[in-house]
Amino acid sequence: MDRQNEALRWRLLTLLFAILGLSWSISAHAVTVIEEAALTLTLQGQAPARAETPNTVVLPYHWDQRQGAVDGEARFAFDLPVADPAVPMALFVPRLGNSFRVSVDGRELARFGAIPPGPYDDASFAPQYFELPPSRSASPRRVEVTIAAQAARQGGLSPIVTGSVDEVRPLYERAEFWHISGGRFIAIVSGVLGALSLLVWLRQRESIYLYYGLGELLWSVQTVRVLFTHAPLPWPWWGVLPLAAFQAAIPLLCRFALAVVGRDDSRLARFLGLMAWVAPLAAALGILGPWLWLMPLWHVLNLVVGLAMMVTVLRVALRSGVLEHRVLGLAVVLIVLTGARDMWVMRYSPQAYDMVPWIRFAWVGFAISLAWVIAERMRKDARSMAQMNASLEAELDRRNAALEDAFARERDGEKARGALEERQRVMRDLHDGLGAQLVGLLRIAQQPGAARDDVALHLRDAVDQLKLTVDAMHDGDGDVASALGAVRYRLGPRLQAAGIDLHWDVSPLPVMTGWGVRECHQVQMLLFEAFSNMMTHSAATEAHLNARVVPADDSGGEVIEVELRDNGHGFDANVAPPGRGLTNMRTRAAALGGMLMLRSQPGQTCLCLRLPVPAPGRDASDVKHQTGTFAARDTHHHRLT
């Protein structure tokens, strides 16, 4: 009587949860539930060896709980009442397997898989529906259901619902929706959330995303088992894989919850990590052993660590005012309580075999809550990163402003230094050139009997040099042709007065990159020295100045060649002439990175200045550095007599 009362209470609970949509319902239909059947057992291929006394059993019949770690077959027989032979009847079985055969009045109605079951045959999770052939009379019909079960494979038979097709088929469709469609939905949600979390982990390498991603993916692997009647892997591996995934998912998600509240370094968190590693071994021992007591023990261990995790999370959530901690606390309470309920029902309820686990549906809310926690954490991290970026940008703007001020001061200092250097250069030129000429002119003028023409000649030189110095103060940007033109403009009247006819032939010349005032002035003063010597010592009547671009001798580049010729009486180039005019010209050519070549004979003197043109991307300072040594080395080689 107590057993019947207990069974009645559990049936009432089943009806209650059917109203909530968590299981199939019989409350609103005039159907019959078959809960007792005559049983004939065959264990491990032997003849019928044992039957319960009396020869009936109460359904559901869970093979693993009733028979333990053995394989075998069970034949259930019962009489099906017929109210109206004209009404088509159907059978709805929530769980049946692993493989089965259904017979009505001695004729086979349906069959699934081989008996004993093959390695890929497992229908024990899918609801089954059968339509009976028409009855010829109102007498009860004899139904026999034979199952072939393997140890640890969760075979068995649930209570059977019978009635008209119109009454039974909606119940089957509802059960299929919750079992199959619901399982498919859960697997997809868990798989997507797990994959997204692992992608985030690959980018950020934070352990919480790894725990959550692996936990969700493993849960989706465990859930997809209900979707297969023909397993993708042979037994027992198709049993080990989902069970190992389920056993590892729980400690991983518990550790995720601890990591969210900042307890990932606790001993409980480390123990959960150890459980996740050991879970596949425990699943393999439980299935392959088969030590069927190992899985209930592992479930108890999961419940204990889950309760410990729940207490830790709730303690942190109550002390902190962080919203995601509180949401996580509620989700943890939900999943732990539903897991405890399922474990209690599976252990002590006679209806355990055909129940729908609450944790399967509670997991959706739990997963969504955890996904929201991750999203909220990522949102805060993104906001913190944005604030950090804004702070860094402000700091960079401040640093840039300081650097710009420093650069501006440096530019001002550079301009001041440049102006100072230019003043010093002008002072040196005036002192060394014009000043020396004026001092020499003063000495000449102070001598008794000084010739007026000599004084006038020296004054003209001084004035011309002063004009060239003033011209050089205007930056020509490396325009050699303009520098040459300034010399012609300043010395042309003096050459004409000296009776020298100047022929000018200057081709288009490239701009000397990196040249400034100093370089242009060096070219002008070099030519000034050459023309002065011509007017003073050569007694020439004709002069030619040619400037053009020619290929370099050995470097593969180009040079500007400035050649000055006259028809004077010449001199011996091997004998150093008096004065420092030629030495000064060579010094100026070397300062420009060029070469000065001189040849002289009676009736012709030729002075040739070769200036290397900087290649693209290089300036004249680079050219001067590379060609200075060569120019000094080859000056004597190119001096011709």
Automatic annotation (TrEMBL):
Record field: transmembrane: 177-202, 209-228, 240-262, 274-294, 300-318, 327-346, 358-375
Q: Which domain of life is it from?
A: Bacteria
What Gene3D superfamilies would the database entry show? 1.20.5.1930, Histidine kinase-like ATPase, C-terminal domain (3.30.565.10)
Which terms are listed as keywords in the entry? Coiled coil, Kinase, Membrane, Transferase, Transmembrane, Transmembrane helix, Two-component regulatory system
**Annotated region Disordered: where?**
618-641
Q: Which InterPro entries match?
A: HATPase_C_sf (IPR036890), Sensor_HK_TwoCompSys (IPR050482)
Q: Which residues form a coiled coil?
A: 375-409
Q: What is this protein called?
A: Histidine kinase/HSP90-like ATPase domain-containing protein
Q: What is the lineage of its organism?
A: Bacteria, Pseudomonadati, Pseudomonadota, Betaproteobacteria, Burkholderiales
